[in-house]
Q: What sequence folds into this?
C-alpha cells in the first residue's frame, strides 16, 4: 500500500532520484505508518483510528505527512534511541529518525501529524 503510493509519486516526476534517497524515504514513511498501525489508540472506547498518508516531492526534498485521529502520541523524538539487537520492538521511530533528514511530530486540531522529510543527494 505505502510502497504503491510512493511509487506512484516517483512515476509522476522525472526519474532523477538516487536509489538511496528512494529507499531512505520509503523506509522512513513505512516505519511511521507501521508505528501508527501498531500503537495508535482510538479516542472513543469502541472506535477506530483513521490514518491519511500524503507524499510529495520538490526538486531537492521528499516529504511524507502521516496523520491519524487517534489519541495523542506520547513521544519525545529528541530522546529516541535504537533498541538493542535482541529486542523485537522499539526500532520504528528511531529508524525513521535515522533515515530521514528531519522527522517532526505535532498534535494539531485533535490529530497526530508526523512529517518526515528526506533531502535528496
A:
Amino acid at each position: 500500500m505505502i510502497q504503491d503510493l510512493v511509487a506512484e509519486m516517483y512515476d509522476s516526476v522525472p526519474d532523477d532520484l538516487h536509489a538511496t534517497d528512494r529507499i531512505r524515504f520509503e523506509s522512513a514513511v513505512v516505519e511511521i505508518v507501521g508505528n501508527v498501525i501498531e500503537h495508535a489508540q482510538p479516542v472513543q472506547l469502541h472506535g477506530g483510528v483513521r490514518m491519511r498518508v500524503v507524499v510529495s516531492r520538490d526538486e531537492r526534498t521528499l516529504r511524507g505527512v502521516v496523520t491519524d485521529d487517534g489519541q495523542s502520541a506520547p513521544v519525545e523524538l529528541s530522546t529516541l534511541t535504537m533498541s538493542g539487537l535482541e529486542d523485537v520492538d522499539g526500532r520504528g521511530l528511531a529508524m525513521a529518525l535515522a533515515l530521514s533528514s528531519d522527522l517532526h511530530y505535532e498534535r494539531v486540531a485533535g490529530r497526530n501529524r508526523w512529517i518526515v522529510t528526506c533531502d535528496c543527494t
Observations:
- Residues 2-119 form a domain with the Heat Shock Protein 90 fold (CATH 3.30.565.10).
- The helical segments are 2-11, 19-39, 92-99.
- The two ends are 26 Å apart (CA to CA).
- DSSP finds three helices and four strands in the chain.
